[in-house]
Amino acid sequence: MAVPLLDVSRQHAPLRNAFDTAYDRVMHSGRFIFGPEMEAFEREIADHLEVPHAVSLSSGTDALLVAMMALGIGPGDEVLCPAFTFFGTAGAIVRLGATPVWVDVLPETFNIDLGDAAGKVGSATKAILPVHLFGQPCDMDCLAGFATKHNLIVIEDAAQAIGARYGGQRVGSFGAFGAFSFYPTKNLGAFGDAGLLTTADDGLAERARRLRNHGMHPKYHHSVVGGNFRMDALQAALLRVKLPHLESYHASRRAHAAFYNAALSGIEGLALPMVHGGMESVWNQYTLRVRGDRRDALREHLAAAGVGTEIYYPLPLHEQPCFAGVGRGGESLAVSAELARSVLSIPVFPELTDGERAEVVGGIHRFFEEAD
Ligand SMILES: *Cc1c(COP(=O)(O)O)cnc(C)c1O
């Protein structure tokens, strides 16, 4: 039996009629940019994420970009950024002419290591960009303490962690901004690109709203240079169909993760992902660490059995060719380098069947039995 890493069509099939209705509504309204669908979506998602303001945007990447533009981050400013994350996190920093300071991550949670950050923070450091990687919240108590101590702005990259909670509180509501992505592989996936910023600050929300529309206010008057960072009304309408189901999608991912935690425990060659107390992961990925340089062999073994896997991420950011000579802190990132060699993400999408996840586990057990 082939098991895909992800199959969004299974999620969409039962909602087919609701999508058709939403599509027709937008088509007949003639409002394809801004308008009632976008406003309704922003209200609904702000409620869901328990934040005062939600600003819909063209992508998660643009959400990070607009957040830093609204905060005035630019040349001469440093931003603490984990070296082990998706490229877009750091790309946004560099595109604004700011300097990324590469920070290592914790091996058990894949999230930013504040011990390492403490040794790298400097007088030009203006912000810290924690990423709630794979759906797992960062330790936001420690992070808030660190940011206060060093007078840093916090921008949360919550692209993979919509709905996750730390100490009962939703991610994206801790920092000056929370940035979200509706890229189709994320827990709430759109039908194309879309993103979001959340904030509790009225002024920052207003600035982000202007920046997404060329800094325009009032009409055809521009006090700042923004861009076109708007979400399509069609994406808003389709996301409104999926949002009420998001908690049930998370619940299914959690059940799969619990199954894997039990079924894969005790395998010598594996370290399983850990969720620390007070954190609720939404399991965008279930990511194993494979010991002893056998990650690629396990991946090939599973591929031969028809099981889809992916390596998030094979190269730490400070080693990316485009970042050669960019930023600082790249000398001491042992954990990021080690994770790039050892991580393997296995299928954890909500609609995965019991039979499929048993197949994944069986394939992994066979690999380690044959190897022994
Ligand atoms: C997906 C993702 C982004 C970018 O979101 P897009 O919507 O694809 O632009 C940024 N950061 C992280 C951690 C992501 O996973």
Structure description:
Helix 5 links the parallel strand 2 (78-82) and strand 3. Helix 2 (16-29) runs antiparallel to helix 9, helix 4 (60-70) packs parallel to helix 5 and helix 4 crosses helix 8. The protein starts with 7 loop residues before the first helix and ends with a helix. The mean pLDDT is 97. It is globular and about 70 Å long. The chain is built from 13 helices and 13 strands. The protein has helices at 8-12, 16-29, 36-49, 60-70, 87-95, 114-118, 140-150, 202-211, 233-242, 246-263, 295-304, 334-342, 354-371; strands at residues 53-57, 78-82, 99-103, 125-128, 153-157, 165-166, 169-170, 177-181, 195-199, 270-271, 279-280, 286-290, 343-346. Residues 59-61, 85-86, 88-89, 131, 157, 159-160, 181, 183, 193, 195 line the site of pyridoxal-5'-phosphate.
